[in-house]
């Protein structure tokens, strides 16, 4: 399953780990997320995410 990246803050949604803090189990694909799911970092709506292969990673600074 492909990772999805928030175009506002760079948060990576990884289906392998899900979003357990917000009730999303590991193995949940991005497409299966509820429509009202939001980025856990910046609260962006789901439509602000892009598949990893479409995002230039250099757009976001690396975390140290």
Automatic annotation (TrEMBL):
Q: Does the keyword Electron transport apply?
A: yes
Tell me the cofactor note.
Binds 1 Fe(3+) ion per subunit.
Q: Extract one GO BP annotation from the record.
A: alkane catabolic process
Which prosthetic group or cofactor does it need? Fe(3+)
InterPro entries hit by this protein: Rubredoxin, Rubredoxin-like_dom, Rubredoxin_dom, Rubredoxin_ET
> According to the UniProt entry, where is the signal peptide?
none
SUPFAM superfamilies named in the record: Rubredoxin-like
> Residue limits of the Rubredoxin-like domain?
1-52
One MF term from GO for this chain?
electron transfer activity
Could you list this entry's UniProt keywords, alphabetically sorted: Electron transport, Iron, Metal-binding, Transport
Family, per the entry? Belongs to the rubredoxin family.
- Cross-referenced NCBIfam families: RubredRD (NF045768)
- Protein name stated in the entry: Rubredoxin
